[in-house]
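Researcher: Let's do a round of design. I'm pasting the structure tokens now; please hold your answer until I've finished.
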């Protein structure tokens, strides 16, 4: 009877269910899978590819599966992978010592932390995984661990490999006959597998400089026939008890050795060449996909599979050695995302890892435009204009009505026409932009923002020049230089930039040694007259002088993220001309009066802030994940705190955030890649009509996850849940385009099976929206 009743209710709902909106609480990875570091083939012929952005699977020449933390992986960038044929599963190792198993039949991941618990050694990263019978051999930063894959337990760990220092890093493992070889920075350790005494140092034989390894830092090992190869900056082969340099694989360092299943073929890779050894050594030098990362030879199909840096997996047919076809999941070009911004549902981003401050960027770090769920990548590999200007290291972005703008570390400013895709690069040769040093062409653009007139304001980070702030008219190409503010101190340099609704410029200050120096708030007129104030820990109540992000919220407040907490300025228009109190940043008052601190997030290293349509604040941190903060009566509470431990978040180090109000998604850039989370709140509709309600029908199952999403609302609306006999069940206040309901009545009780009407009324204009939802007890 219940089944029949549910079917009738579904018919009543009609198109309301068919037009469901994007589900809420869903994580989606947006990582680059172009760099393939490891390749494995399972017994059914599927090719498993471990990349810097997760896993992808090739079957019958097509990509069939992809895996990231959103699909259950531990992290996106495995440092090692091996196929376990006996258990038909994939083993993955990671930089922190964690390893996991993916059961191909059940499609489930299982984590193991045996190595991370070895706290007497640090670091504890996993460098190589090898299978031998039912044992998983794990080469880590402190030795070799043997793990029984049958009963899922650690058998033993070898810390002392002969005369090498205890806890020596093992970079690769090779099995040859009954021997095991371990590649280390000190040389090679050799032991006999059939003995039970490998935990005793004297059971190992060591090879180092005295054995012919002039450069004993051995990274990779390989074998062919009776020969054993070792790769450092030179390639060695073992003859008897001594090693000698071999020229079989060219003069460049070898990055990888891989033997075929039956040992008839050995593949060796350098950055620029592929060597295939069978009866003779064949050199293959494709022009694309370099440098090469991994390889696998498939005897059955006579194919070489090559893991590349920027093209995914290259497939070389045996009969066409110089021809390589590529397979790669669609997505961004690199796994770096910085300076995110949103333009009416279009996401723009730089693609560098903050060069000059944390890591050195790769030369293909350009920028992205994400539109209609498709990534367009612009860099020196994909665009001639950027290639001719050697434009790279992009890490800031902004936009006007007609153009996107991207700032780089050292290569100036790029203007991208939204309609024609025409790109113009501005630097010290064709604009007033200054280099970091006087007369230098190294132009750093860390700050971009648009004012109310549609002009782009640009900060050029300058060591010793006063005119580091510019206004640029993108239609006329007219530049106006602004002199250094009178409020800036001699050690202050301009860095990041935000413009508020009063056209005030909020400029973060930095020393030339990359130390935070507070914040400058600046107001200018057409005659270059200025009013300004300098804010710091001592004058402005900043929790820390390192200002990492700024944003104006829906009520006009300015929020500032620092390296030790977050503050807000409730009346930014009064900061310059107001009294002492007006320019004091307010700490967040904790709504939880039982908490240990009266202030919320007062000690976190905040790196990014974004505001959703309900004026809630997403706050990214360094090392502490992602926070969603809501306000209630002047106090603030934590609505969500996502970390890698309790969510699919890729990393706890957040570098940039932006909310797309069109979909309610927040784009979360981390040091390991990009992931999105669909928030409850999205931009409201000016006029309401049919509401989208889901899940629909709704069935009570897990109390912790019981919620119904009502979508398609205006910015501010009152939502009433009414039974078919006209009884009011519950009332909700919505701020933004969505609201969630816990499927309960006023008294927090579950409600009876039936059809319920959902009626929404806009608080401002009285427009109405309606829908129906089925509840099944």
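Researcher: That's everything. Go ahead.
Model: Designed sequence:
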């Amino acid at each position: 009877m219940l089944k029949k009743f549910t079917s009738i209710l579904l018919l009543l709902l009609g198109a309301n269910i068919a037009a469901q909106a994007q589900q809420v609480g869903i994580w989606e990875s947006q990582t680059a899978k172009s760099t393939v570091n490891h390749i494995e083939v399972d017994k059914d012929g599927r090719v498993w590819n471990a990349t810097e952005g997760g896993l992808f699977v090739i079957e019958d020449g097509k990509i069939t599966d992809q895996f990231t933390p959103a699909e259950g992986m531990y992290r996106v960038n495995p440092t090692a992978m091996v196929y376990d044929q006996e258990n038909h599963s994939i083993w993955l190792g990671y930089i922190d010592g964690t390893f996991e198993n993916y059961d191909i039949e059940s499609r489930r991941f299982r984590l193991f932390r045996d190595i991370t618990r070895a706290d007497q050694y640090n670091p504890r990263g996993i460098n190589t995984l090898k299978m031998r019978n039912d044992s998983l051999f794990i080469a880590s930063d402190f030795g070799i661990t043997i793990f029984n894959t049958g009963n899922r337990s650690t058998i033993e760990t070898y810390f002392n490999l002969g005369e090498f220092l205890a806890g020596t890093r093992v970079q690769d493992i090779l099995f040859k006959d009954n021997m095991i070889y371990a590649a280390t920075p000190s040389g090679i350790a050799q032991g006999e597998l059939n003995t039970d005494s490998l935990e005793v140092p004297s059971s190992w034989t060591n090879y180092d400089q005295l054995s012919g390894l002039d450069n004993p830092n051995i990274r990779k090992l390989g074998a062919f026939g009776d020969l054993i190869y070792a790769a450092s900056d030179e390639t060695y082969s073992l003859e008897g008890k001594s090693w000698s340099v071999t020229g079989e694989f060219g003069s460049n360092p070898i990055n990888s050795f891989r033997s075929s299943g039956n040992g008839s073929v050995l593949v060796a890779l350098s950055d620029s060449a592929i060597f295939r050894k069978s009866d003779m050594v064949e050199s293959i030098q494709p022009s694309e996909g370099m440098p090469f990362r991994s390889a696998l030879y498939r005897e059955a199909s006579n194919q070489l599979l090559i893991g590349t840096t920027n093209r995914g997996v290259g497939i070389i047919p045996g009969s066409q050695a110089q021809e390589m076809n590529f397979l790669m999941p669609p997505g961004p070009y690199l796994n770096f995302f910085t300076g995110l911004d949103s333009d009416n549902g279009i996401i723009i981003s730089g693609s560098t890892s903050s060069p000059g401050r944390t890591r050195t960027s790769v030369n293909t770090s350009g920028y992205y435009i994400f539109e209609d769920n498709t990534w367009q990548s612009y860099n020196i590999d994909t665009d001639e204009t950027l290639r001719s200007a050697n434009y790279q290291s992009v890490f800031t972005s902004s936009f006007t009505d007609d153009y996107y703008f991207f700032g780089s570390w050292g290569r100036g400013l790029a203007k991208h026409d939204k309609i024609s895709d025409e790109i113009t690069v501005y630097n010290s040769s064709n604009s007033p932009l200054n280099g970091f040093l006087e007369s230098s062409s190294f132009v750093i653009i860390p700050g971009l923002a648009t004012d109310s007139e549609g002009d782009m304001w640009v900060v050029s980070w300058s060591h010793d020049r006063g005119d580091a702030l510019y206004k640029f008219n993108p239609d006329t190409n007219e530049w106006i230089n602004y002199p250094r503010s009178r409020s800036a101190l001699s050690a202050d340099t301009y860095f990041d930039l935000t413009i508020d609704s009063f056209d005030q410029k909020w400029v973060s200050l930095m020393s030339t040694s990359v130390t935070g120096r507070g914040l400058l708030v600046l107001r200018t007129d057409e005659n270059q007259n200025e009013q300004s104030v300098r804010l710091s820990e001592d004058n402005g109540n900043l929790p820390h002088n390192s200002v990492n992000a700024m944003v104006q919220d829906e009520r006009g407040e300015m929020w500032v993220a620092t390296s030790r907490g977050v503050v807000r300025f409730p009346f930014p228009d009064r900061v310059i001309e107001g009294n002492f109190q007006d320019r004091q940043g307010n700490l967040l008052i904790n709504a939880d009066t039982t908490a240990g601190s009266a202030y919320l997030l007062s000690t976190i290293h905040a790196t990014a802030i974004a505001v959703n349509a309900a004026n809630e604040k997403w706050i990214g941190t360094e090392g502490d994940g992602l926070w969603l903060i809501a306000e209630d009566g002047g106090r603030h509470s934590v609505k969500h705190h996502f970390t890698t431990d309790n969510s699919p978040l890729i990393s706890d180090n957040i570098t940039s955030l932006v909310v797309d109000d069109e979909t309610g998604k927040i784009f979360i850039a981390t040091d390991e890649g990009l992931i999105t989370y669909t928030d409850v709140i999205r931009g409201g509709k000016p006029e309401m009509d049919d509401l989208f309600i889901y899940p629909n029908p709704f069935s009570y199952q897990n109390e912790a996850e019981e919620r119904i999403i009502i979508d398609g609302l205006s910015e501010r609306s009152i939502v009433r849940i009414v039974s078919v006999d006209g009884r009011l069940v519950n009332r909700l206040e919505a701020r933004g385009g969505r609201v969630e309901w816990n499927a309960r009545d006023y008294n927090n009780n579950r409600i009876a099976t039936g059809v319920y009407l959902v009626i929404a009324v806009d608080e401002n204009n009285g427009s109405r929206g309606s829908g129906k939802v089925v509840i099944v007890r």
